Amino acid sequence: MMTASLDATFSALSDPTRRAILARLAEGEATVNELVAPFKLSQPAISKHLKVLEKAGLISRGKDAQKRPCRIMAQPLAEANEWLEGYRKIWEANFERLDALLDELKAQKKSKP
Amino acid sequence: MKNVLKVSAVGDREIVVTRDFNAPRTLVWETMSKPEYLTRWLLGPPGWEFTKCEDDQCVGGRFRWEWRGPDGMEMAMTGVYREIVPPERCVRTESFESGCVPQMGEQLATLELIDRGEKTSLKLTVLYPSREARDGAFASGMERGMSASYDRLDDIITGVAV
Question: Which residue segment(s) compose the domain that B104 sits in?
Answer without folding.
Answer: 6-159
